[in-house]
Amino acid sequence: MTEKTDFTDEEWKTILQGPPSAGMYVAFSQKGGSIRESFSMAKAYAEAKQQPGGSKLIDEIVSTKPEVDKTRLPSVEAMEAHLLENVQQAFALLRSKAEPGEVSEYGKFIVGLSERVAEAHREGFMGLSGERVSDAERAAVQMVAQTVGEDAPQAPSEDGES
Description:
Elements: H1 9-28, H2 34-50, H3 56-62, H4 76-97, H5 100-118, H6 135-147
Helix pairs in contact: 1-2, 1-4, 1-5, 1-6, 2-5, 5-6
């Protein structure tokens, strides 16, 4: 079983940066709602804390406050690339040191958190379109899922079924 002590301080910081970077990557994919999206990230951590035992590694990750990467870059595109790179680095590091089941749990946690961020607010003018997740957010969640080797959820069909 992999634990925090299996990583250097810098490696652990990289591991911790993966989930919030994925969430912010999704948040940057669509304008608006950044406050709600930040709250949804915090809520995903809080809910994971309340359900300990699935993975000691995930338990240790969610026991810390998610810290958003505060790097300043010249464009949204550069920031999105940087955030996705954070996810890639964290996942590669974890894959090199952790058991396959733990790597999968980390990936599922990241994708779940990304989904929560995408669903944080309704799209359209003042949320009136009723669309829960925009196409850009769906694509961002899919990219995060591909990065961590997990399947992204399917978009609901026109009749509202998944």
